[in-house]
Amino acid sequence: MIKKLCVTAGIILLMSVRPSLADGPVRIGLTLSLTGSYSEMGDMQSKGYRLWVDQVNSRGGILGRPVEIVLRDDGSDGARAATLYEELILKERVDLIFGPYSSGITNAILPVAARHGYPLLVGGASADRLWQQGYQNVFGVYIPASRYAVGFLEMLVMSGLGDVAVLSADDPFSQSIAEGSVKWAHRYGLNIVFNESFPKGQEDFQDVLTRARQAGARVIFVCGHFQESVLLRGALAGMQWEPAAFYASVGPVLDQYREQMGDKAERTFSSSQWEPHPDLAFPGSRAFLDSFVATYGESPSYHAATAFAAGTILEDAVGKTGVMDRQRIKEVLGTLDTMSIIGRYGVDRTGMQIRQFPVIIQWQKGRKEIVWPSELRTAAPVFR
């Protein structure tokens, strides 16, 4: 009888403890590249996530619980990120996770998220291959890399520029942009006169640009990250070659690009998931911009905006489930149709984003202008 009473008391004690555990913070784990080759973008993403946490907690948290970010530095290394996500899940016991920055690092942690049954909202990567491997728990926040530059290619057609040289780093993200853009270029009737990949980390581009010029290129189309955009633009200046148009992914959307390149940044095109223009007509965009500047004293790049958007999308999905259940959250993320500060969220059956679209920007007179689509543009594109 005494033993039975003790067991009953133990059950009652456990039941009394459970509510306090449920009322603890919702802990969301992730790694970002706070150091290494992706540190500029990782820093922006970390600020975007922290701003979202401050705001969601001011609204009462998620399901009445405060939100806490558990952030680790992956050093821009995929293997290290995979190890850290294992620790976040098994040792830190985080409730949910966000994806890291870059497609290569995200690809490295996909098996970890799948193995432990965690839905993965990807706010910093878009290589098509992430959704071509059969994972059912990976959801893109923004459009896949293969469609990044469709707006720029459309502008080339409208401007009568058709001889394009495609130069791409050999990482998954850059290759997705290159492969997709070449396909779209052919559909638009553009002429790809030169198409070559180079090793990630290459610094000397004079030879490859000389051969692109000899092939008759009038447009230089660079698929890479920040360093590639800077080095290739600098190499063009060193050759005293000003093509009719220079496009580079990722790098030119950062203010650091202008700071580093000075006047050489002029007329550079790029794709952006979001821009810090006060009149950008996406819900909450202006409020995000004002809050970011007030909090950090600098203008946000789209990397910060996509991180903030990932937070609000996850907040929406968990709110619709009404319970902290990872399987149900995964199901909602697969069917959710909502708006964020970067536009519409909606994925296909693989989890690839199909609703959102990037804008095309160009550096003009020391500032970024939106030049496509026409409904959102702040200036007309300038070609040489």
Question: What does this 3D model show about the protein?
Answer:
The protein has 384 residues and is α/β, with parallel strands linked by helices. The protein has 2 domains: 24-143 and 282-345, Response regulator (Rossmann fold); 147-272 and 359-372, Response regulator (Rossmann fold), CATH 3.40.50. 43% of the residues lie in helices and 18% in strands. It has helices at 2-22, 39-58, 78-90, 103-115, 150-159, 172-187, 206-214, 226-239, 255-261, 285-296, 302-321, 326-335, and strands at 26-32, 67-73, 96-98, 120-122, 138-140, 163-169, 191-198, 219-223, 245-248, 268-272, 338-340, 343-345, 359-364, 367-372. The strands form 3 sheets. Strands 7-6-8-9-10-13-14 form a 7-stranded mixed beta sheet, sandwiched between helices. Helix 2 packs parallel to helix 11 (302-321). It starts with a helix and ends in a 12-residue tail after the last strand. Mean pLDDT is 93; it is low at 1-21.
- Using DSSP, what is the number of strands? 14
Which stretches of 5+ consecutive residues score pLDDT under 50?
1-21
According to CATH, what is the topology of the largest domain?
Answer: Rossmann fold
Shape: globular
Q: Looking across the biggest beta sheet, what order are the strands in?
A: 7-6-8-9-10-13-14
Strand content: 15-25%
Order of helices and strands: HEHEHEHEEHEHEHEHEHEHHHEEEE
- How many independent structural domains? 2
Structural class: alpha/beta
The largest pleated sheet is described as: 7 strands, mixed
User: How helix-rich are the residues, as a percent range?
Assistant: 40-55%
Using the CA coordinates, give the radius of gyration: 23 Å
Number of DSSP helices?
Answer: 12
